[in-house]
Amino acid sequence: MKPKSPESEYYMSASNRITGSIVLVIGALGLLDVILEWRTASGLLVGSIIGIFMVLAYVGLMRPSVTLSPEKLLLRNHLRDHEIPWSAVSGVDITDILRVHTGDNKYRAPGVQLVMRDMRKQRVGGRKLAADSSISKADFVVNRIETHQDQYAAQSTGEVITRWARPELILVGVLAVVAIVAALVR
Protein backbone atom coordinates (compact mmCIF):
# COMPACT_ATOMS: atom_id res chain seq x y z
CA MET A 1 0.00 0.00 0.00
CA LYS A 2 1.35 3.42 -0.95
CA PRO A 3 1.86 5.98 1.81
CA LYS A 4 -0.49 8.94 1.70
CA SER A 5 0.82 11.98 -0.05
CA PRO A 6 1.69 14.90 2.22
CA GLU A 7 -0.48 16.99 -0.12
CA SER A 8 -3.62 14.95 0.61
CA GLU A 9 -6.73 16.72 1.84
CA TYR A 10 -9.32 14.85 3.87
CA TYR A 11 -12.98 15.89 4.30
CA MET A 12 -15.78 14.33 6.31
CA SER A 13 -18.81 15.42 8.28
CA ALA A 14 -17.77 16.74 11.71
CA SER A 15 -21.17 16.06 13.27
CA ASN A 16 -21.09 12.44 12.08
CA ARG A 17 -17.55 12.01 13.39
CA ILE A 18 -18.55 13.35 16.83
CA THR A 19 -21.72 11.26 17.00
CA GLY A 20 -19.83 8.16 15.85
CA SER A 21 -17.14 8.69 18.47
CA ILE A 22 -19.74 8.97 21.23
CA VAL A 23 -21.50 5.80 20.04
CA LEU A 24 -18.21 3.89 19.87
CA VAL A 25 -17.22 4.99 23.40
CA ILE A 26 -20.60 3.90 24.78
CA GLY A 27 -20.28 0.60 22.90
CA ALA A 28 -16.76 0.06 24.27
CA LEU A 29 -18.03 0.66 27.80
CA GLY A 30 -20.80 -1.88 27.19
CA LEU A 31 -18.27 -4.40 25.88
CA LEU A 32 -16.02 -3.80 28.88
CA ASP A 33 -18.95 -4.44 31.21
CA VAL A 34 -19.81 -7.68 29.39
CA ILE A 35 -16.17 -8.84 29.52
CA LEU A 36 -15.80 -8.10 33.24
CA GLU A 37 -19.17 -9.26 34.55
CA TRP A 38 -20.84 -11.61 32.11
CA ARG A 39 -18.50 -14.39 30.98
CA THR A 40 -21.06 -16.88 29.65
CA ALA A 41 -22.47 -17.87 26.28
CA SER A 42 -25.18 -15.24 26.79
CA GLY A 43 -22.46 -12.66 27.46
CA LEU A 44 -20.70 -13.71 24.25
CA LEU A 45 -23.97 -13.28 22.37
CA VAL A 46 -24.58 -9.82 23.84
CA GLY A 47 -20.94 -8.80 23.26
CA SER A 48 -21.16 -9.90 19.61
CA ILE A 49 -24.34 -7.92 19.09
CA ILE A 50 -22.76 -4.83 20.69
CA GLY A 51 -19.72 -5.34 18.44
CA ILE A 52 -21.96 -5.54 15.34
CA PHE A 53 -23.68 -2.28 16.32
CA MET A 54 -20.29 -0.63 16.89
CA VAL A 55 -19.10 -1.65 13.41
CA LEU A 56 -22.38 -0.43 11.91
CA ALA A 57 -21.99 2.91 13.73
CA TYR A 58 -18.44 3.23 12.38
CA VAL A 59 -19.55 2.35 8.84
CA GLY A 60 -22.56 4.64 8.93
CA LEU A 61 -21.09 7.64 10.73
CA MET A 62 -17.30 7.68 10.60
CA ARG A 63 -16.22 5.87 7.43
CA PRO A 64 -17.70 8.15 4.73
CA SER A 65 -15.07 10.66 3.62
CA VAL A 66 -13.55 12.41 0.64
CA THR A 67 -9.77 12.41 0.15
CA LEU A 68 -8.05 14.58 -2.47
CA SER A 69 -4.50 13.75 -3.48
CA PRO A 70 -2.41 14.54 -6.57
CA GLU A 71 -2.89 10.96 -7.78
CA LYS A 72 -6.65 10.51 -7.36
CA LEU A 73 -9.93 11.41 -5.72
CA LEU A 74 -10.95 8.81 -3.13
CA LEU A 75 -14.62 8.61 -2.15
CA ARG A 76 -15.14 6.37 0.87
CA ASN A 77 -18.82 5.52 1.12
CA HIS A 78 -20.48 3.32 3.71
CA LEU A 79 -19.50 0.00 2.13
CA ARG A 80 -17.47 0.87 -0.97
CA ASP A 81 -14.46 2.93 -1.96
CA HIS A 82 -14.22 4.67 -5.33
CA GLU A 83 -10.76 5.69 -6.55
CA ILE A 84 -11.25 8.17 -9.37
CA PRO A 85 -8.28 9.51 -11.36
CA TRP A 86 -8.48 13.25 -11.94
CA SER A 87 -8.62 12.79 -15.71
CA ALA A 88 -11.90 10.87 -15.33
CA VAL A 89 -13.66 13.59 -13.30
CA SER A 90 -15.97 15.55 -15.60
CA GLY A 91 -17.76 17.59 -12.95
CA VAL A 92 -18.75 17.92 -9.32
CA ASP A 93 -21.82 19.34 -7.61
CA ILE A 94 -23.70 19.15 -4.36
CA THR A 95 -27.38 18.44 -3.81
CA ASP A 96 -27.90 17.03 -0.34
CA ILE A 97 -24.52 15.28 -0.59
CA LEU A 98 -21.49 15.64 -2.83
CA ARG A 99 -21.74 14.11 -6.32
CA VAL A 100 -18.77 13.50 -8.60
CA HIS A 101 -19.49 13.01 -12.32
CA THR A 102 -17.34 10.79 -14.55
CA GLY A 103 -18.73 10.59 -18.05
CA ASP A 104 -22.02 8.68 -17.71
CA ASN A 105 -21.60 7.80 -14.00
CA LYS A 106 -22.29 9.78 -10.85
CA TYR A 107 -20.64 8.82 -7.59
CA ARG A 108 -22.29 10.03 -4.41
CA ALA A 109 -20.11 10.87 -1.42
CA PRO A 110 -21.92 11.15 1.93
CA GLY A 111 -18.69 12.32 3.57
CA VAL A 112 -19.62 15.87 2.52
CA GLN A 113 -23.26 16.69 3.08
CA LEU A 114 -25.60 19.59 3.67
CA VAL A 115 -27.52 20.13 6.87
CA MET A 116 -31.27 20.44 6.31
CA ARG A 117 -31.42 23.64 8.38
CA ASP A 118 -29.02 25.36 5.97
CA MET A 119 -30.90 24.05 2.93
CA ARG A 120 -34.18 25.47 4.31
CA LYS A 121 -32.58 28.85 5.00
CA GLN A 122 -31.19 28.99 1.49
CA ARG A 123 -34.50 27.94 -0.11
CA VAL A 124 -36.63 30.39 1.90
CA GLY A 125 -34.14 33.20 1.56
CA GLY A 126 -34.84 34.38 5.09
CA ARG A 127 -32.05 34.75 7.60
CA LYS A 128 -28.55 35.00 6.26
CA LEU A 129 -26.43 31.86 6.31
CA ALA A 130 -23.51 31.84 8.72
CA ALA A 131 -19.99 31.79 7.30
CA ASP A 132 -19.45 28.30 8.73
CA SER A 133 -22.70 26.81 7.39
CA SER A 134 -22.69 23.37 5.79
CA ILE A 135 -23.35 25.02 2.40
CA SER A 136 -20.20 27.13 2.73
CA LYS A 137 -18.17 24.08 3.75
CA ALA A 138 -19.59 22.00 0.88
CA ASP A 139 -18.89 24.80 -1.61
CA PHE A 140 -15.31 24.92 -0.33
CA VAL A 141 -14.90 21.17 -0.97
CA VAL A 142 -16.44 21.52 -4.46
CA ASN A 143 -13.97 24.33 -5.22
CA ARG A 144 -11.03 22.25 -3.93
CA ILE A 145 -12.08 19.30 -6.12
CA GLU A 146 -12.37 21.56 -9.18
CA THR A 147 -8.94 23.06 -8.42
CA HIS A 148 -7.38 19.59 -8.08
CA GLN A 149 -9.09 18.49 -11.29
CA ASP A 150 -7.63 21.43 -13.21
CA GLN A 151 -4.20 20.99 -11.66
CA TYR A 152 -3.73 17.20 -11.82
CA ALA A 153 -5.92 15.94 -14.70
CA ALA A 154 -2.98 15.77 -17.13
CA GLN A 155 -0.81 13.61 -14.89
CA SER A 156 -3.47 11.41 -13.23
CA THR A 157 -4.80 8.81 -15.64
CA GLY A 158 -6.40 5.41 -15.35
CA GLU A 159 -9.74 3.79 -14.68
CA VAL A 160 -12.20 4.25 -11.85
CA ILE A 161 -11.61 1.50 -9.29
CA THR A 162 -14.43 0.45 -6.98
CA ARG A 163 -13.72 -1.79 -3.98
CA TRP A 164 -15.86 -3.17 -1.19
CA ALA A 165 -15.05 -2.29 2.43
CA ARG A 166 -13.70 -5.77 3.14
CA PRO A 167 -12.43 -5.34 6.72
CA GLU A 168 -15.75 -3.97 7.92
CA LEU A 169 -17.78 -6.63 6.09
CA ILE A 170 -15.53 -9.44 7.37
CA LEU A 171 -15.76 -8.14 10.94
CA VAL A 172 -19.57 -7.99 10.82
CA GLY A 173 -19.65 -11.51 9.34
CA VAL A 174 -17.35 -12.92 12.03
CA LEU A 175 -19.32 -11.25 14.82
CA ALA A 176 -22.59 -12.55 13.33
CA VAL A 177 -21.21 -16.11 13.22
CA VAL A 178 -20.00 -15.80 16.83
CA ALA A 179 -23.44 -14.51 17.87
CA ILE A 180 -25.20 -17.40 16.12
CA VAL A 181 -22.89 -19.99 17.67
CA ALA A 182 -23.32 -18.39 21.12
CA ALA A 183 -27.12 -18.43 20.70
CA LEU A 184 -27.05 -22.13 19.76
CA VAL A 185 -24.74 -23.08 22.65
CA ARG A 186 -26.66 -21.20 25.31
Description:
- This protein is α+β, with helices and mostly antiparallel strands.
- The protein has five helices and eight strands.
- It has helices at residues 14-37, 41-62, 116-124, 134-152, 166-185, and strands at residues 9-11, 65-68, 73-76, 80-84, 91-94, 97-102, 105-113, 161-164.
- Strands 1-2-3-4-8 form a five-stranded antiparallel β-sheet, with helices on one face. Strands 5-6-7 form a three-stranded antiparallel β-sheet, with helices on one face.
- Helix 2 (41-62) packs antiparallel against helix 5.
- The model has no long low-confidence stretch (mean pLDDT 86).
Summarize the structure.
With 186 residues, the chain is an alpha+beta fold. 51% of the residues lie in helices and 21% in strands. The strands form 2 sheets. A 5-stranded antiparallel β-sheet has the order 1-2-3-4-8, with helices on one face.
